[in-house]
Structures are given as C-alpha cells and as structure tokens.
Design a protein that fits this description.
It is a single chain. The chain has ten helices and nine strands. With about 300 residues, it is an alpha/beta fold. It has a six-stranded mixed β-sheet with strand order 5-6-7-3-8-9, with helices on both faces. A three-stranded antiparallel β-sheet has the order 2-1-4, with helices on one face. Helix 7 runs parallel beside helix 8 (about 225-240) and helix 9 (about 250-255) crosses helix 10. The N and C termini lie far apart (about 40 Å). The structure holds adenosine-5'-triphosphate and magnesium ion. Adenosine-5'-triphosphate (ATP) binds next to strand 2 and helix 2.
C-alpha cells in the first residue's frame, strides 16, 4: 500500500510552468489538477507555455528476421497520430500489439521501418538529446547504492552538459510534491513499491522533459496505489504542461487519465479508433462511479473487442 502523499505545494510547479515561453498546443485543454482532493478552481494556468507536440506519419515496424529460419515479425501496421502539446494520450491495446515498440520509436531508441516521427518537428533522437523526451519504464530500476535524492537526480547527473530549463522544479521541490521529502536520504530498499515508483516519476520530471513516454508504469502496483499514482501523475504534469503518451492495459486507467485514448488491434498493431475523453478537469476520484464514466469504459471495451475481431 502506498502511504498518502503529503499535501502538495503545487505553487512551485505552477511557477515552473509560468516561466515558460512558447505557444500553446492544441491539446492543452487541461486547466486544473486531477486528484482525490482537487485544489480549488483557480485562474487558468498562465500562457503562453512550453508544450511539446508529436506527429507520426505512416509509421510501421517489422523486426528481423533475426537469423535462422525465424520469419520477420510485423509489429506495427501503418500508424498515423498527432498528439497536441500538454495532452495526455493513452495507447490501449492487447499484449504484443506493438505499444512498447511504438514508445521506443518515439523515444528514438528504435528506428521505424517506414514512415516518420517528429517531436516538435525534430527527429526523436535529436529531441531526446535535447532532453525534451523522458521515458518511464514499468519498473523504476532505482540504483540500490544511491539515495532517493541521488536516484532522482540520476538523469540530470548523466546529462550534465545539458542543464534542465531553469524554470524546471528542483528535485527537492518534486520530492516534496510527491510526499517523499522525509525520504530524500533513504535508500531504495527502505521504500515501498509505490514510493519507488514515485522516485521514478520525480527522476523523469527532474530532467525537465516536456514529453513523457510512460510504458505501463503502474502495472505492478496494487489497485489503490495505482489510483494514487494516477492522481499524482496528473498533478505533476498539469501545471508543467507536460505532454504524455501513456501505455496501459487498464481501461479504467485510460479513461481516467487521458484526454484521448488510441485503441490498437492485436499484432500487427493498428489504431482502430482515437476516442475523446469528455470529462472536464479537475477530475475527482469519484468520477469512476459516474454513469458517463461507465459508458466510456464500455465504449473502450467494445472498441478493443472490435479491433480484435478484425
Ligand atoms: N527487439 C525485438 N526483436 C524482435 N521482435 C520484437 C522486438 N521487440 C518486440 N518484438 C516483437 O514485436 C511485437 C510487439 O512487441 P511489443 O513489446 O511492442 O508489444 P506490446 O504491445 O508492448 O506488448 P505488452 O503489452 O505485452 O507489453 C511482439 O510480437 C514482439 O515479439
Ligand atoms: Mg509492452
């Protein structure tokens, strides 16, 4: 079980976003926070803000053949997608349909077989070198010999030559935001799974990346901790205008977190539909009990099924 994060002092994150200075993106519709105890509705976040957009045009991926007699594996059929600045877009699809492959291509860690991907008009590898892109894997993979603070600064330390934007929140500010201020000098083995995952989130946000790629980051957590992590993620990325591409198998998670959900077919993955999530912000924890939420999850489930039948 995750202990409840300390009440956030999100003013610092709002300050971070206020210091930015480039145009709004189309998906920047989120105007406030999502969490179990939403902050009172305040003024809209200051604009203009820095947000990152993503474009995929006819992207495909076929692996191999890797030698021997194994045939090539077509992981992803032609895929086109636009993600607006500050938008949370979820990829929802069955196991093996190419979600991780797609994220790795967006991160510049894998080359598409055909098609093009651009992050703010740049090739992904360049965007990653410019620290616009952060990758959050399923397991936070903390280094056991480094303290919480030292793990959280790891990506910054590895990228010393590229300073994060001066407007990015500091690691200590982020640790306080996620309720880990008192654990900054602790080591990973002294933390629960949920706490470790929060350190992983801080590490990604500390890099100052404006595009976060998240590959089932909460899959290993129990349902209550997972719900807490959803709130925390949105609380962190909303004031910063972070664009998020989030992979999950959980229909409820996709419906709660996202501005839009892209539903994929089984391998070779292809986007069957991109579904708008109409719920306004701030989203309250009890949204999941609402009839409209039930209707949306039913539609997502039906779309997943229809993709599997094709
Ligand atoms: N490096 C690789 N070499 C060869 N085949 C690969 C490689 N990476 C992925 N694949 C294949 O591509 C397909 C898609 O894999 P991928 O990991 O992207 O799926 P996924 O949607 O993330 O699945 P899951 O939900 O189980 O994580 C699979 O058939 C997998 O075997
Ligand atoms: Mg995967």
């Amino acid at each position: 079980m995750m202990e409840v994060a300390a009440a956030p002092t999100s003013a610092v994150l709002h300050r971070a976003r206020a210091g930015n200075s480039s145009p709004n993106g189309p998906g920047n519709a989120r105007s406030s926070t999502v969490g179990p105890q939403p902050r009172p509705a305040g003024p809209r976040l200051p604009s203009p803000v820095v947000t990152t957009t993503l474009e995929l045009i006819d992207v495909t991926k076929t692996f191999g053949p890797s030698g021997g007699t194994a045939p090539p594996v077509e992981a992803l059929a032609p895929t086109a997608l636009d993600v607006g600045g500050g938008e949370v877009l979820t990829l929802l699809g069955p196991s093996g349909c190419g979600k991780t492959t797609l994220l790795r291509m967006i991160a510049g860690l894998e080359q598409p077989t055909t098609g093009t991907i651009t992050v703010d008009g740049q090739p992904p590898a360049l965007a990653r070198r410019n620290k616009r892109v952060g990758f959050v894997p399923q397991a936070p993979a903390l280094l056991p010999w480094r303290s919480v603070r030292a793990n959280a600064t790891l990506l910054r330390d590895l990228n010393r030559r590229q300073r994060p934007p001066t407007t990015a929140p500091t690691v200590d500010e982020l640790l306080a935001e996620v309720g880990l201020a008192d654990f900054a000098d602790a080591f990973p083995h002294e933390l629960s799974g949920g706490m470790q995952q929060r350190v992983g989130l801080v590490r990604a946000f500390a890099l100052g990346a404006s595009l976060l790629l998240m590959d089932e980051p909460f899959a290993a957590l129990d349902e209550m901790t997972r719900a807490d992590m959803r709130h925390l993620l949105i609380r962190l990325c909303e004031p910063l205008g972070t664009t998020v591409v989030f992979v999950t198998h959980s229909i409820a998670e996709a419906a709660f977190l996202s501005d839009r959900v892209a539903v994929l077919t089984p391998r070779p993955g292809r986007i069957v539909d991109v579904i708008d999530v109409p719920f306004p912000h701030p989203r309250r924890a009890d949204l999941e009990d609402a009839e409209d939420f039930f209707h949306l999850t039913t539609r997502l489930r039906d779309t997943l099924r229809s993709g599997s039948d094709r």
